[in-house]
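Let's practice the habit of predicting before peeking. Look at the sequence and jot down your guess about where helices and strands might fall. Then scroll down.
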Amino acid sequence: MDNNIMYISLFAIFLLPGIMYAFMPYLTRKTESFGVTVTEEIYNSERMNKIRKKYTLEALLVVGITFLITMFLFFKYPEPLNIYIYTVALIVMLGILFLVYLKYHFIIKKLKEEEGWTAAKKQVVLTDMSFRKRKIQYSNVWFVIPLIITAATAYLTYINYDLIPEQIAMNYDLNGNPTNFKDKSFFTVFMPTITQLLMIGLFIFINNIISKAKQQIDPADPENSAMQNEIFRRKWSGFIIVSGIIMILLFSVMQISFFIPIEPGLLFAITMGSTLVIVLGAFYLSFSLGQGGSRIITRFNKKGEEIDRDNDEHWKLGQFYFNPEDPAVFIEKRFGIGWTINFGSKKGIIYMGVLLIFIIGSLLAERLG
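Done guessing? Here is the structure:
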């Protein structure tokens, strides 16, 4: 049973990101296509439908071929080589998918320039002044729950410190056999606690981004757009909180296993199962909500002739936003779900640097532990 959970999780973690990327043109706003500003009329045209279908088929082909090759090599070679193959193959697949995206980005960009899709449309930027006053995210107070779990786990670890063996298994292979041991020390034993605290801080940071990210309203349908965006933010905020609790519980189980024996296979199954739940949750929200809530059906349905401001010049390759004149630090992705950084903002670069320091610091701490 444990092996079944492990393999299902490994397969899903490989396939789901690729599948979501393949169907991304159907999840973005209808005013954007492959990172290029378009009118909703153009988006719904027969030609664009064919282009989206062609992209999706090509992307799914990439996902299918890389998955089959990866699984063949995964079962052919022993650990840890198969894990390295799996990881590299996942990165390669996402890299190829990005190249496929770029192909269609330049196709759409060229068609737009040749035919002037947005030239005749009135471009408008709308702002809902009451948007920030509404409850568009769940309170950070919810993170008290993972904090209590972390504190309780740290206390249990402290009072049971003498029960922890002098050599602690830190890593396991896919069969549940320990592959790496570290000497018992306070730093090693409480490393999961430190990681939990850092993760809680990161989740709070992401939850704040959801609240503070730049608002994007469709001028042709402002009421509907504002409601969709509000629902979108609240649901992703809830997902961040639930995911945070799951991850903190997972690290607590890992830490408790230091002094209460847990069968390694079961521990690995819990780890993979928890990861799978989070991946499936993100997959479901992405397809049910769409970017910015564009797939949410509301009671409003009024369409005007205006379009949002065409600012393609600030989107490099349709993916990276660079606009020093825009005070916003976080904005919606054009080809993807969620938000990205304004790379033209000094604050944005600082946030990116802090995030990289956090990731590198966590990896170094684990090594030193």
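How did you do? The radius of gyration is 23 Å.
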